[in-house]
Amino acid sequence: MFIPSLFIFSLLFASSQASVVDFCVADLSLPNGPAGYSCKKPSTVTENDFAYSGLVPGNTSNIIKAAVTPAFDAQFPGVNGLGISIARIDLAVDGVIPMHTHPGASEILIVIQGTICAGFISSFDNVIYLKTLYKGDVMVFPQGLLHFQINSGTTTALAYASFGSANPGLQIVDFAFFKNNLPTELLAKTTFLDIAQIKKLKAVLGGTN
Amino acid sequence: MFIPSLFIFSLLFASSQASVVDFCVADLSLPNGPAGYSCKKPSTVTENDFAYSGLVPGNTSNIIKAAVTPAFDAQFPGVNGLGISIARIDLAVDGVIPMHTHPGASEILIVIQGTICAGFISSFDNVIYLKTLYKGDVMVFPQGLLHFQINSGTTTALAYASFGSANPGLQIVDFAFFKNNLPTELLAKTTFLDIAQIKKLKAVLGGTN
Amino acid sequence: MFIPSLFIFSLLFASSQASVVDFCVADLSLPNGPAGYSCKKPSTVTENDFAYSGLVPGNTSNIIKAAVTPAFDAQFPGVNGLGISIARIDLAVDGVIPMHTHPGASEILIVIQGTICAGFISSFDNVIYLKTLYKGDVMVFPQGLLHFQINSGTTTALAYASFGSANPGLQIVDFAFFKNNLPTELLAKTTFLDIAQIKKLKAVLGGTN
Amino acid sequence: MFIPSLFIFSLLFASSQASVVDFCVADLSLPNGPAGYSCKKPSTVTENDFAYSGLVPGNTSNIIKAAVTPAFDAQFPGVNGLGISIARIDLAVDGVIPMHTHPGASEILIVIQGTICAGFISSFDNVIYLKTLYKGDVMVFPQGLLHFQINSGTTTALAYASFGSANPGLQIVDFAFFKNNLPTELLAKTTFLDIAQIKKLKAVLGGTN
Amino acid sequence: MFIPSLFIFSLLFASSQASVVDFCVADLSLPNGPAGYSCKKPSTVTENDFAYSGLVPGNTSNIIKAAVTPAFDAQFPGVNGLGISIARIDLAVDGVIPMHTHPGASEILIVIQGTICAGFISSFDNVIYLKTLYKGDVMVFPQGLLHFQINSGTTTALAYASFGSANPGLQIVDFAFFKNNLPTELLAKTTFLDIAQIKKLKAVLGGTN
Amino acid sequence: MFIPSLFIFSLLFASSQASVVDFCVADLSLPNGPAGYSCKKPSTVTENDFAYSGLVPGNTSNIIKAAVTPAFDAQFPGVNGLGISIARIDLAVDGVIPMHTHPGASEILIVIQGTICAGFISSFDNVIYLKTLYKGDVMVFPQGLLHFQINSGTTTALAYASFGSANPGLQIVDFAFFKNNLPTELLAKTTFLDIAQIKKLKAVLGGTN
């Protein structure tokens, strides 16, 4: 072809005013807003903002024999403004991710290793959707609904959860109920749980009142 | 002014192909989609599609001494596609709206009569935000978070809850846990509740397994 | 159940980088953006950010015998980023909320007291949807359309308007036309109103030119 | 390079279930929904769905000496679901596009020929933003705000208006007030216009009551 | 606690008009719309709609030594309307996912096995962001940008790609240029590629003209 | 009518806390966020923020005999947050806008002068949609898809492109491939282009490696 010269080509789209259109890597040092964090200056963005190596095996030597390791915007600034994120889930034998919701995102779980029994509860008629998932299986949990995962096999299980938000949130019912200073009487009244049950779990989880 | 004739004026915006741009009143007889119901033909829409008189006092002669009466898209077709809806909340003395979430909407509560203690739990550090609300007070509950309302006064209370969705959903934790066939063992494992506690509430609420 | 120890439980979701995912209370001292105000630091947020007691009876001793009292993001910082807000409407006998639009939000009106005649005008064929609303009735006004409310009863009327935006805007046609320096000739040309009519209303509302 | 065979290449992304991901050309024969019309079957879509030749000069032999010719989803099915559309504006000498809003879209006007005086009114303090636009100038009108265009030159003017919606709507204040059966008394009460003024314009525009 | 009876509890939220609020499983037999497919009737939805076992190892005995196996809405109806999906990527030794875009979604890649060199090109200054990813590493590719993945290790590689759309699309540049009937002259003119180069790749990929 | 006094009218909507609801003119001196730039203080906004005269004829004395002149948010701050923008396209005889995408926006092209052959490629089955457009014709290019425009007439051509984003981006395939430091071997591997072809175009466009 007939390509005579380089320098004139660069005239095609010469805007004196630079603007980053493709991404908005989070600048965690600035105040955030309803749509996410402010963007880092493009000249300071590198490939390391878009990759993350922190999804290492979690420590499952705990009561739930499980660990959730997030790569949300606060850990992985490259996803800011892009509406997606991911987390690693480790489940030792008998491990459990207790009943929880993500207030602002749907989730897809992909099982990498082991066997996981997962389920969610519909807000319509309280229907349970329950599946045993094997290596390579995926399951979707619609936004905001109560769901859980348990290791239903005999070996360690590993899964990744991808989310439709850079910051999906995680509200674990047990923590919300028993790991704060919500008064026991109020909690009993709004959950129908017995006082003794509440006090027992508050003691375990560190709740007061 | 100089306004010579009517008929030519109508030429301004004469499109042979009619299109409803302003609203999309739900046609509940057609399949719905991710964004809501299909629209009724404009020629069949009347003012009655945009008004609703069904927010009458709810029957609070029940265990929670409370009633929620919705005007969501299924009851009030005019809100379809507009991203808002409303519900009436009646609380008899000692009435409670138990711990619940709206999976897809934030809520503003406005107290019309009586005194209501309301609260929500943040997914960050499980912080409780708790307020006693009097006539005329409003409170906002961010999307997807666990919250509750109780009548904390000595008279009947009335409130309206407005939502940022035509179909906000309502997931009551007690119903989700105890009013279905979710196996007791599985529920115990994912909530840390005692088996006895679960069986007791399943018995009350009609849950099986 | 078998809950051996507390401290290991806290390992479940330990992110060194805090992030508020659930809400974004407006920091009105910082610049806002297209999606709303910047978020207050979570440690400074209290329950008072989520509740508002300013929806007191408005002063209706004015020409329209009406008052609109907003709880939008600028007054009620907790709604920032949540896409909802509310306002109180007081109508004395013969009170009128004149023809207006909310440029960026749909509205649901709930009548608390009195009788209100409300209506909106479709942009398609200029159809009027007009209803007389009694205590407990609701009506929805689709986004951006001209609408109005008048007290059509014999007593004071009270209503709340909920919106699908934290900042719905309010453009009153009379104010937009007659309460600024829009030149009379230009206004006549673009509205077909008589010069005398324009001058009369400009005099009343304080418009110039 | 080393490219041995064709047929195995086609294995890369062979989904037995076809799905159109790129566009959703409107099937105007099916009911529409809140997000737009249903999609035509991909096999019936042609290049003619994505191009439109109907933006021909409008007839300006009318009272406003102007014409608006839309290419919205109902005329130009290819824009369905894509959130954009366009219209042609012809203004004869002294032509006027009267005060109007687009309830659901912002607009950019580009002047192709002639001189246009355009303005919009902010809902905040009723500030007027007014500009005389020459060939090649653009002006943006934020969503839902009252605005107008007039031919302020001595020749015919031509402009295109592009919108951030496939169906932006068009609510002309004069039509909304005077070209329907909205009762004169009610209109007077909600606009402060004189009865005589209303009757005069209703007579011109065909309004009743 | 004091829970006298079951049947009255069910009065709390008794809406005669059923409505599915939590999800919208695709009914692939109905026309789709801009927001996705119509919803299946809730009574026909089962747990199998929310899980998918089709992400099996792809056949990499092809020219690119790679395979992409999607779980988008057309394969995995449960993600319809939820704004997320996932795909499996198999890369044999020397395997390549050629330069491509997803027109409507950002992507997170998680490496399960092997070593992958991945990169994307910014539309601003054509900057390349290039990373070698090892087992457990993630990388994000912002919406619509050109990107690629190659097996840069000595063993088979496996990864999952999660997307912020139920139907992210996949436009492979080589396919778009050389695997259709786009005239060679036109392609040369719009890509600056040599005619011989174009004809060579058209021959391989099955393009005509 | 009965309009007694001005000053009381101003009580209608008196909020002590000002808030700009209608627009968010970009303050280019502040960091931007995922939804766009921060807003200028309303008191500093003028009509000049909403109009732009910079869409002047571009210099087409270059290799592609074409020029694109943008009025995106960085050039035209009034469009910030409004989701629309526009650009001017000049095509000399034989001018070409090479294969490109806008990663985050759909586009409507309107031909003002001359004859333009335009086309886009679907990601589904690589179908080409190709049209010759004459003065006054419009064509829509769905979001993120590869497309191009060439002057197919015998005179200079002029067109405007409107976008459904204030910052649509522009990724030209030739620039992305050949005008940076993407290693030739990697590019060959991910595009199947011959090394010689790549080196030839890198030489022209200034690419290295």
TrEMBL record, chains A, B, C, D, E, F:
It comes from the Eukaryota. Residues 1-18 form the signal peptide. Residues 53-199 form the Cupin type-1 domain. GO terms for cellular component: apoplast. Disulfide bonds join 24-39. One of its GO terms (molecular function) is manganese ion binding. The keyword Secreted applies. Oxalate binds at residues 102, 107. Mn(2+) binds at residues 100, 102, 107, 147. Belongs to the germin family. PANTHER family: GERMIN-LIKE PROTEIN SUBFAMILY 3 MEMBER 3. This is Germin-like protein. It comes from Fraxinus pennsylvanica.
